[in-house]
Amino acid sequence: MPMERKKILIVDDEVRMRKIVSDFLVREGYQIFEAGDGEEALIQFAEQQPDLLILDVMMPRMDGWQVCREIRKQSNVPIIMVTARSEEIDELTGFDLGADEYIAKPFSPRILVARVNALLRRAFGNAEESRSYGMVRVNRAAREVQVQGRKVELTYKEFELLCYMMDNAGMALTRGQILNHVWNYDYYGDERTVDTHVKTLRNKLGNAADYIRTVRGIGYKFEQ
Amino acid sequence: MPMERKKILIVDDEVRMRKIVSDFLVREGYQIFEAGDGEEALIQFAEQQPDLLILDVMMPRMDGWQVCREIRKQSNVPIIMVTARSEEIDELTGFDLGADEYIAKPFSPRILVARVNALLRRAFGNAEESRSYGMVRVNRAAREVQVQGRKVELTYKEFELLCYMMDNAGMALTRGQILNHVWNYDYYGDERTVDTHVKTLRNKLGNAADYIRTVRGIGYKFEQ
DNA sequence: TAAATTTATGATTATTTTGTGAAATACCGC
DNA sequence: GCGGTATTTCACAAAATAATCATAAATTTA
To answer: How far is the CA of B214 from the C1' of D23 (A)?
Structure first.
């Protein structure tokens, strides 16, 4: 179990609903923040940097899907979508991407708590403060990368790419695999996009550039 | 013998759903087979011998549970059940119906791929990590080959060729067989091409060169 | 042993794949 | 909207790989 209290942002336009969910999660030891609509959610997200989001789909103005997409542009934070039963079937068509879990309303608090715990365990389970591979050091919480002690500024995608490759260090990864994991599954464009990001990443990694090996006919591999 | 690409059978009566799931898993490197109903599933299962099943619960005539039971009579293949209602899953926890994982619809591809990867890893272990034949050691995930501990750089085709021959070690393989498996079934080029690749492979294998025996009049055979 | 058959090899050509710069597009904070 | 950044697309050059082919070498057969 994680040491510090994990922060959870609950987004729902119904105060009563927020209150109920909040109560259960507080009792579970989590620190709760609330937002009553999509815009407030985005602000709260930026300010509090929560470790998990619980997003109601049905909200006035900006709905849950929009918020989800918006958040996903900047973060891989675990997201649980709460849908009303009737919508469920419709959403199947959209197969909306980006959320990690879906829960149908009305749900039992027990299920919710179980999913929250599971997601957080998955997300933070193996997250050490900072990890080193050769001359590369990565701190995920801080989103910082150092090469030979010198700090290197990476963009969002570059950072995600580096993390994914390091998580699978020593394994040859196809461009498809990389797209699946770094691009959150909602990308249907050119596979060569990966190449470009590898290029910029290599440039920024300087001396550690060839930790990212090209595996011809397959894709790339991170190897010290 | 376990080939490199794992085979997954998707069973769902909705074509669109199969397509979506399939797309993501293909990109992840899996080989996909599909079935639109329970009976077709059983046939496909027998024919293709998939390494994992994704089973939709709700299907006309023979439902997912029946298929699951039927498969379980003959195999311990990992099975992921997809149910429409998340409550259903909750009700079922504790019951051993034979499935290995349950996913509620609508689910995110991210979850699906994660579970598939995890299940397959669990089922096949990382034992397959790297395999040795005499002085030759092959790590397929890393796409690395060592001869007497020295790393040897192989091209894509050379690597595939070596893997195919090792998978069928001790068997004399015709050039036609080799073309079918290492090249595509729709390859109609010169059979002598195989010879050239065997030549370069032998060169790179150094001391292990004559693990690849010539079988005159037939083709080649890998033998330690 | 010579002829016939099959394989090995080197050289050449063709094809595929990747690296890269630059342009186009999307996105973000103001 | 605007300017700046990030991301994606694209096209072309460079590099690597693959295929073809002619010939040499090896093996089998008669």
So the answer is: 20
